[in-house]
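Retro notes (design track)

What went well: tokenization of the new backbones is finally stable.
What didn't: we kept losing track of which sequence belonged to which structure.
Fix going forward: every design gets posted as structure first, then sequence, in one message. First example under the new rule, 890 residues:
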């Protein structure tokens, strides 16, 4: 098991920078000494400080890295959250004394001003204090123990006796400086050469500039006016503007506190107060809303109305919504002094002072927009981009969280990802995942780092092929349901007429049986197969149709291909071959002697014609139907065993349907023609090391299958339906190394003249010694098929879905249907619904517009994972490879 401390430092740095706040870091630092070096890094805390500056809207130069130590960073980061916690806990107090917050320490600044202090502003961040006296304006560095220098003082142009009526501070566009606006004598304002905007009919309460939305906003006691900021800034000549009209005019709805939807009696401008919006905070971010303080003269209470401003993405039209209402205690309109709001730990802190007793109050309320971190742009400071993540993080994201299509889109849209997205390790990982999902043949010898585009195609092909099949499966007409190959080529060898062929999952290797030999062909290669990939067959007499059994499966370790060939069912000759792709060598597997004959000692009538046999690992399993026997041959240890099945469980005409081997649950399953599943312990079978017939070998579990009509699948159907039921050849290759979840049964319903696919799931009860339970899970109406007209039939996996493939004898047309592998139709009490398709996707075996090469019927083998189909030509002397995907630009 991988422990957290085993993660690379880059991973931990990413977690610390993006997932932990300051409190979490302190707690982790106190509890985990192993992370002390990472959590005690000044760089780590400095990065956290930069994030806090953006989030809280603090003045960045207040935190000089040259002056701040590790403890200073920790205090600055922890302070907002702890202050909010203090205010909220005290705010909830029951008595007046409980709601008082006392300072923990106090100190006098180590200097005196030369005149009376009139007004002052403490800038966000708490380091710089701007003081206005009667003779000068002074900026004080609170962290310093020295008096302000002359450069930090600016004398007033006029002697001020009364308190200045206007005194504001805001940071510059690049956030490196702060600016102060002082109106020393309000009377001068009327004669100054300013741009003046005329407005009639209402009292102006507040002016706000939204630099992000480029809006100049005027709040009145009746409406909110939105002007185009860029239009105002484009005016380069001072003077009075007569024809500047607002772009948008929105009413300001002030409702009753008890029912905000009902407008209250309009209050006079003297009774409506705006909290001073945090101009500093909204200098470099969009204004999410505003707070309106209203003293209700009837109730003698003061309320805070919070409004949210949102903009239409297409037209840019603003809309104003009331989002919060708060009762503000200890405040009366006639007694209020200073009033402003600040952001602290992402919340809004309202602050006001009472004139009658000079008491200072504060209250915490949620901010209109809870988290503005994603909308911050700050001067020359860059937000964190995805490319700033460590390489290890991106490899983790690419390998675990993105599918191949996302990676290709990322590669095409962002050149900076070329080195990462073209990494061989990444695509090897993705290829292994695809191989696991669809259980394709992927030996290590196939992993050639120079074949990166081949990797990409192999990874992307299953999803694209599945998409193509589903698109045509849902077509509105028959012509649209046809899938034509994009390219075709003839394999470069001709040695005898192909009798049977199998395209191994993955689409690279094709196993071909001709009358004289068996050959493994590398479909990727333009050269004929080497001699070591060919073997002469020992039985070359009789007709080609005598070769009725031809199976392939991977070896137990997945590195080789095993092939079972029955050259003559009459003679019962069974040969097992093994192909090693690392050496391109095909050899005959037989532990003791060549041309091994596996015969049931009691009967020479072996094997069947209904694809019942199974090759898995070192076992080849088949039936002796005339004697009701199951036969298992361990060809690596040359152990042959057989046992009889109770005739009560079988049909007398054709007793068996299919053998399934679940190597994960170690279960050996026989499906009889009466649709009864017999379960044996696989380990018990493989533990037998002596050949022979076992007189008594009863199954561990006997489970019947409910086989009903499509209209009522949970009720047993008529017996005649069973006579026209047959199994799709289960993807033996797939179930060699993965859990067997269920099986498919094709049924031609004679009364409805339709063919259905019944999908059953096998569940095991852990509380009952893994007793199996058979449930019908899916029901599909299969088009273009009837019970007397089906040729080859099998299913394959593709992008995690099951692809059913069949060929019609009447016209040699090949069809496919996609259906889910993981079933979700088990909730209905009446059974699963019937999934109907008007057309199955027809896999046309000639290129569009070239029907002269139409093949009426041939030996076909289809691999949807690679999008390739191999089929014989009319003369039966060559094999054509059709590619339905082509080179799709990877």
């Amino acid at each position: 098991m991988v422990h957290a401390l085993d993660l690379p430092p880059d991973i931990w740095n990413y977690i610390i920078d993006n997932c932990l706040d300051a409190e979490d870091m302190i707690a982790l630092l106190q509890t985990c000494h192993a992370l002390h070096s990472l959590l005690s890094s000044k760089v780590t805390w400095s990065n956290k400080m930069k994030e806090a500056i953006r989030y809280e809207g603090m003045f960045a130069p207040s935190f000089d890295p040259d002056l701040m130590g590790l403890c200073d960073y920790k205090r600055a980061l922890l302070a907002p959250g702890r202050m909010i916690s203090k205010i909220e806990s005290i705010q909830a107090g029951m008595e007046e004394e409980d709601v008082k917050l006392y300072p923990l320490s106090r100190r006098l600044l180590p200097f005196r001003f030369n005149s009376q202090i009139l007004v002052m502003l403490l800038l966000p961040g708490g380091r710089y204090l701007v003081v206005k006296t009667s003779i000068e304006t002074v900026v004080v560095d609170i962290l310093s123990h020295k008096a302000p220098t002359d450069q930090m003082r600016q004398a007033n142009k006029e002697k001020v006796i009364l308190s200045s009526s206007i005194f504001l501070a805001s940071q510059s566009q690049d956030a490196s400086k702060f600016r102060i606006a002082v109106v020393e004598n309000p009377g001068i304002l009327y004669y100054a050469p300013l741009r003046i905007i005329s407005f009639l009919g209402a009292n102006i309460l507040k002016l706000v500039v939204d630099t992000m939305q480029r809006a100049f906003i005027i709040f009145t006691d009746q409406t909110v006016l939105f002007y185009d900021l860029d239009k105002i800034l484009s005016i380069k000549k001072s003077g009075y503007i007569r024809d500047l009209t607002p772009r948008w005019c929105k009413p300001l709805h002030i409702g009753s506190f008890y029912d905000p939807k009902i407008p209250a009696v309009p209050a006079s401008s003297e009774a409506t107060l705006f909290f001073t919006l945090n101009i500093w905070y909204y200098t470099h971010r969009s204004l999410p809303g505003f707070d309106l303080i209203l003293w209700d003269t009837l109730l003698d209470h003061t309320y805070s109305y919070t409004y949210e401003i949102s903009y239409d993405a297409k037209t840019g039209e603003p809309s104003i919504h009331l989002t919060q209402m708060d009762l503000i205690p200890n405040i009366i309109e006639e007694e209020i002094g200073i009033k402003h709001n600040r952001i602290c730990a992402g919340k809004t802190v309202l602050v006001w002072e009472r004139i009658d007793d000079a008491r200072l109050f504060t209250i915490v309320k949620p901010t209109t927009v809870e988290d503005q971190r994603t909308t911050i742009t700050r001067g020359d400071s860059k937000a964190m981009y995805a490319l700033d993540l460590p390489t290890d993080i991106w490899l983790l994201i690419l390998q675990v969280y993105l599918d191949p299509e996302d990676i290709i889109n990322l590669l095409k849209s962002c050149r900076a990802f070329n080195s990462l997205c073209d990494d061989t390790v990444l695509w090897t990982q993705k290829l292994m995942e695809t191989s696991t999902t669809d259980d394709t043949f992927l030996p290590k010898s196939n992993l050639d780092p120079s074949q990166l585009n081949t990797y990409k195609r192999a990874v992307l092909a299953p999803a694209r092929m599945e998409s193509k099949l589903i698109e045509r499966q849902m077509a509105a007409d028959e012509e649209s349901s046809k899938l034509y190959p994009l390219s075709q080529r003839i394999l470069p060898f001709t040695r005898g007429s192909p009798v049977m062929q199998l395209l191994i999952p993955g689409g690279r290797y094709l196993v071909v049986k001709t009358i004289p030999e068996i050959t493994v062909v590398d479909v990727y290669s333009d050269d004929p197969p080497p001699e070591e990939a060919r073997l002469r067959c020992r039985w070359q007499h009789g007709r080609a149709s005598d070769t009725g059994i031809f199976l392939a499966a991977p070896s137990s370790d997945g590195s080789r291909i095993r092939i079972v060939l029955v050259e003559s069912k009459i003679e019962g000759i069974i040969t097992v071959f093994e192909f090693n792709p690392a050496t391109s060598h095909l050899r005959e597997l037989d532990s003791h002697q060549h041309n091994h004959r596996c015969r049931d000692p009691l009967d020479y009538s072996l094997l069947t014609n209904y694809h019942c046999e199974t090759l898995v690992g070192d076992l080849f399993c088949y039936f002796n139907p005339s004697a009701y026997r199951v036969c298992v041959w361990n060809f690596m240890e040359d152990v042959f065993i057989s046992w009889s099945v109770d005739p009560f469980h079988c049909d007398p005409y054709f007793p068996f349907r299919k053998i399934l081997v679940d190597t994960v649950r170690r279960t050996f399953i026989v499906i009889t023609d009466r649709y009864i599943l017999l379960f044996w312990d696989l380990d018990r079978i493989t533990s037998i090391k002596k050949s022979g017939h076992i007189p008594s070998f009863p199954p561990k579990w006997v489970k019947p299958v409910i086989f009903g009509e499509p209209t009522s699948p949970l009720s047993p159907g008529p017996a005649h339906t069973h006579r026209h039921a047959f199994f799709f050849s289960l993807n033996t290759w797939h179930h060699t190394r993965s859990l067997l979840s269920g099986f498919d049964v094709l049924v031609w319903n004679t009364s409805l003249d339709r063919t259905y696919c019944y999908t059953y799931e096998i569940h095991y009860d852990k509380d009952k010694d893994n007793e199996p339970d058979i449930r019908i899970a899916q029901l599909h109406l299969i088009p273009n098929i009837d019970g007397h007209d089906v040729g080859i039939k099998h299913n394959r996996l593709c992008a995690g879905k099951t692809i059913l493939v069949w060929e019609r004898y009447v016209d040699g047309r090949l069809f496919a249907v996609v259906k889910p592998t993981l079933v979700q139709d088990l909730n209905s009490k009446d059974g699963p619904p019937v999934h109907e398709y008007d057309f199955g996707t027809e896999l046309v075996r000639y290129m569009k517009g070239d029907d002269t090469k139409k093949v009426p019927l041939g030996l076909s083998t289809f691999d949807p994972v690679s999008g390739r189909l191999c089929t014989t030509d009319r003369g039966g002397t060559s094999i054509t490879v059709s590619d339905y995907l082509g080179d799709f630009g990877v």
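Added context from the reviewer: The first strand starts at residue 117 and ends at 122.
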